[in-house]
Write a structure and sequence with these properties.
Layout: E1 8-14, E2 20-23, E3 31-33, E4 46-51, E5 62-69, E6 74-82, E7 85-90, E8 99-100, E9 113-121, E10 130-139, H1 143-153, H2 162-175, H3 180-183, E11 187-188, E12 194-198, E13 207-213, E14 219-226, H4 228-231, H5 237-245, E15 249-250, E16 255-256, H6 261-267, E17 275-285, E18 291-302, E19 305-308, H7 309-318, H8 324-343, E20 354-358, E21 364-369, H9 374-400, E22 409-411, H10 417-429, H11 443-452, H12 459-469, E23 474-476, H13 500-513, H14 520-557, E24 563-571, E25 575-580, E26 586-590, E27 599-602, E28 607-610, E29 616-618, E30 622-631, E31 636-641
Parallel strand pairs: 11-18, 12-19
Antiparallel strand pairs: 1-2, 1-4, 2-3, 4-5, 6-7, 6-9, 7-8, 9-10, 12-13, 13-14, 14-17, 15-16, 17-18, 20-21, 22-23, 24-25, 24-30, 25-26, 27-28, 28-29, 30-31
Helix pairs in contact: 1-14, 8-9, 10-12
Length: 642
């Protein structure tokens, strides 16, 4: 029986074929919505649906009754004119219809140019939506055009509103120099050795570490975070824009900041040899890494040295050099924290990242693996400590006052049974056993597999599969802990220049220190910010991955015909995914191009087998490949086995 009353509300997910799926906890599986029943719903929309009659052996179907909220209305694509009509052909493959541009609404864009269009009207699902060109981006294939397209497609702005810029410059004019009045309100730590450790090309320094040996022989370790909340005040245009953006975006060749450059790179940034306002977590630690005491509060610091990761690593390796004693002590204490973290069950999700060397026009000349140094781990270990202890402090303080510990927490839930089962099958195909039926899987079980796989040719593949099986970490107003880190308490406190939740956590921490209760208005705002920031984070990650993929494909355009070593990363009934070993460029060998046999897929063993020859291709196999083609528009690379 079909009813016109809503049965459920959920978030719409649409495939490249234009079929929708709605997830709702009340249903065992996602409800399938055929294109003809989407009723103008788009990817990410919150919708009300009703169910169709259940057909035995088929997935539950349904249709959209109402769009509750739109995820986005702006799309990037190529402008095309045909038979007197103007259309936008969207880049987004999940946008299943072209957008009509009425006469006079194209800003004079030329046929074939890339543009950004906002849908202005779409009430009839039997007709195409109408839209208006808001920005002409330029010719497709141009580096700046393609990077801008990625950012706009994910719903981010590249420019700040005039009101936001004006506020930022007013702050620079009034508060660029730390005043004596403000400094006297804070714990003065300018006489303690303090340094930042960041990438060579970093411009926004939002965290610093200090270390001082105490008369007792213990160490005072300070984790100092840019006090963005001092400058970006609640209710300001800057605050509203930061919430809207949610985070900074790091593309291959540029950063789209959450805050204007005058704040992110200057006023708030912990630049060396300048007095800076910070919010700090200060710990007294023994020489064996035991935390004796902790303190949280606003401080004023001066960074004595701006290290790059490579420079600090060189001093540590040599055991001598400027501030070598401080760096070596920080490294030793960080290693103790790391060892304790893994002993408690944390999963080592460390994976290989790639970097690019570009020419002046943004063309990739080289793709190489990013080296993971001890100094990367050192900074990460102390940031994890601060994030964990801030969350713990907020919760314990509120509970001691019999108050609900409402705030912003970084939750990482237990993986679903279905995902763990799929992971178990995947691992079994590679010779590893993850029992999912006998007991509840813990982080230690996952880490055991990763440890066993260390040195295995499939190590990177196993880590990737494990990461994909995990639940997505999200922001929430309640704390459930972090499964992957095996932390009972966790939040994000250490990057307020580039993440809005961290800025909110600073405000929440100050309220906690001042014994201010969370009222209903703040609670509602935290809920909105947590949900919105989680969504923005996903979009930013997609943009970052898209820019990497685009540059990898662009790199391979110049290397068509060359042969490489690869590893099989996925098998489907239409092709075999292969990742090139050095550049991590993933492409596909289509089954129809194998030509020597008829191949069938075994989904349980992740194996493709030739019916006559018996030749097998399976996950983790090392193969030799040749680049046959690279399509920058589709972001696809075609390989061939050699």
């Amino acid at each position: 029986m079909i009813t016109d009353k809503p049965i459920a509300t959920g978030r719409m997910s649409i495939t490249s074929k234009g079929v929708g799926y709605v997830k709702n906890p009340e249903f065992a599986e996602d409800v399938e919505i055929q294109t003809s029943f989407l009723n103008t719903a788009l990817q990410g929309d919150e919708v009300e649906i009703t169910l169709h009659a259940k057909v035995e052996g088929q997935r539950q179907g349904g249709e959209v009754l109402r769009i509750v909220t739109r995820a986005k209305m702006g799309f990037v694509g190529v402008l095309e004119r045909e038979n007197g009509m103007t259309f936008l052909i969207p880049d987004d493959k999940k946008m299943y219809v072209d957008i009509v541009i009425p006469a006079g609404h194209d800003m004079g864009a030329k046929d074939g140019q890339k543009v950004f269009v906002v849908i202005t009207r779409w009430s009839n699902p039997k007709k195409n939506p109408e839209g208006e060109v808001k920005q002409i981006l330029g010719d497709k294939g141009d580096n700046n055009v393609e990077m801008l397209s990625i950012v706009l497609e994910k719903g981010f702005d590249t420019d700040f509103p005039e009101e936001v810029i004006a506020e930022a410059h007013e702050i620079e004019k009034k508060d660029r120099i730390v005043s004596l009045e403000e400094a006297t309100k804070r714990r003065d730590m300018r006489d303690t050795f303090t340094s930042t450790i960041d990438p060579e090309d970093a411009k926004d320094f939002d965290d610093a570490l200090s270390i001082k040996e105490l008369p007792s022989g213990n160490y005072e370790i300070g984790i100092h975070i840019a006090d963005v909340s001092h400058y970006v005040r609640e209710g300001s245009a800057l605050d509203a824009e930061a919430l809207k953006r949610g985070c900074s975006i790091y593309l291959v060749d540029r950063t789209i900041p959450m805050l204007p450059h005058v704040l992110s790179n200057d006023v708030c940034s912990l630049n060396p040899n300048e007095d800076k306002l910070t919010f700090s977590a200060v710990f007294e630690m023994t020489t064996t890494g035991v935390i004796v005491s902790r303190w949280f509060g606003r401080t004023v610091i001066t960074s004595d040295k701006r290290f790059s990761y490579e420079e600090a690593q060189g001093i540590i390796n040599a055991g001598t050099g400027q501030y070598s004693n401080e760096l070596l002590t920080l490294k030793r204490l960080a290693e103790i924290l790391r060892k304790e973290k893994f002993a408690n069950g944390a999963i080592d999700f460390e994976s290989t990242e790639v970097k690019f060397r570009l020419d002046k026009d943004g063309k990739p000349l080289e793709v190489y693996k990013k080296e993971r140094l001890d100094t990367h781990k050192l900074v990460e270990d102390f940031m994890l400590l601060a994030n964990r202890e801030v969350a713990k402090f907020i919760i314990e303080e509120h509970e001691s006052r019999k108050e609900a510990p409402l705030g912003i927490y970084r939750n990482h839930d237990v993986p679903t049974k279905e995902r763990l089962t799929d992971l178990s099958i995947f691992l079994k195909a590679l010779g590893y056993d993850l029992p999912v039926d006998k007991k509840e899987v813990t982080p230690k079980d996952i880490q055991r597999i990763i440890t066993e796989a260390t040195g295995d040719p499939n190590e990177a593949l196993i880590k990737t599969a494990t990461i994909r099986s995990m639940a997505k970490a999200v922001y929430a107003t309640f704390n459930i802990g972090h499964f992957g880190l095996a932390f009972k308490f966790y939040t994000h406190f250490t990057s307020p220049i580039r993440r809005y939740p961290d800025l909110l956590v600073h405000r929440i921490l100050q309220d906690t220190l001042d014994h201010r209760k969370t009222d209903d208005r703040k609670a509602a705002y935290y809920l909105k910010a947590a949900r919105q920031s989680s969504d923005r984070e996903v979009s930013a990650s997609e943009a970052e991955r898209s820019s990497i993929k685009y540059k990898q494909v662009e790199y391979m355009v110049a290397h068509i015909g060359k042969e490489y070593n690869g590893i099989i990363t996925g098998v489907t009934d239409w092709g075999i995914y292969v990742e090139e070993e050095e550049t991590k460029c993933e492409g596909m060998v289509k089954l129809r191009d194998l030509g020597d046999d008829f191949y069938t897929l075994n989904t349980k063993t992740y194996t493709v087998t030739g019916s006559t020859s018996g030749k097998k291709y399976t996950l983790g196999d090392k193969v030799k490949i040749k680049v046959m083609g690279a399509d920058m528009e589709k972001k696809m690379i075609d390989y061939k086995f050699v």
